[in-house]
Design brief:
heterodimer; A: 112 residues; B: 113 residues; mainly beta; four-stranded antiparallel beta sheet; 11 strands
Chain lengths: 112, 113
């Protein structure tokens, strides 16, 4: 069945460092891809999305590009802040369904 | 706009008991989905309700059931609780036809002892 694989965390960075969190997927057809973020004590928030190959989703300085050839949707940010510390989830929805399939999450810790 | 609200926020139950969790969707949203998030894991889809009917279901036993009311709010019921049912239960709402762009509540932390 469809699945999402994320790099294991925690990812520990200093403020203003470059961030990459890897995400690859397995799906039949052409899924939509998402990054959700979960701040401590809160529910998940949609960070960005891409619905077709080569689309780039972006929000709050974060970006991810839908790469069909490598089945990847890596999350990047050029300069992280302490306030970016959270758990990041890569997810997909298959065609004809809006059921979200999540990866296991990657914890990001940013230190001043 | 209050967003998605869930109640209660925390709950402790004994093995074998039954529990009901509640969710009010974001204003204007008619579709409600429930997810189970075990500690350190990603959320797992339980089921989705639209127009008061269960539209999709994940790989969860029949002990997990739900309901959606005419005002789009929803309940998740779990019978015969097991220790393994301890988790954060998340409710997500979305407008129909907008796949994946779900708004999540803060969740209900269920502990089964």
């Amino acid at each position: 069945g469809d699945s999402v694989t994320q790099m294991e965390g925690p990812v520990t960075l200093s403020e203003e460092a470059f961030l990459t969190i890897n995400c690859t997927y397995t799906a039949t057809g052409y899924p939509s891809l998402f990054w959700y973020v979960q701040y401590p004590g809160e529910g998940l928030q949609l960070l960005l999305k891409a619905t077709k190959a080569d689309d780039k989703g972006s929000n709050k300085g974060f970006e991810a590009t839908y790469r069909k050839e490598t089945t990847s949707f890596h999350l990047e940010k050029g300069s992280v802040q302490v306030s970016d510390s959270a758990v990041y989830f890569c997810a997909l929805t298959s065609r004809n369904t809006d059921k979200l399939i999540f990866g296991t999450g990657t914890r990001l810790q940013v230190f001043p | 706009d209050a967003g998605v609200t869930q109640s209660p926020t925390h709950l402790i139950k004994t093995r074998g008991q039954q529990v009901t969790l509640r969710c009010s969707p974001k204003s204007g949203h008619d579709t409600v989905s429930w997810y189970q998030q075990a500690l350190g894991q990603g959320p797992q889809f339980i089921f989705q309700y639209y127009e008061e009917e269960e539209r999709q279901r994940g790989n969860f036993p029949d002990r997990f059931s739900g309901h959606q009311f005419p005002n789009y709010s929803s309940e998740l019921n779990v019978n015969a609780l097991l220790l393994g049912d301890s988790a954060l239960y998340l409710c997500a709402s979305s407008p129909s036809g907008v796949g994946g762009e779900a708004f999540f509540g803060q969740g209900t932390r269920l502990t089964v002892v």
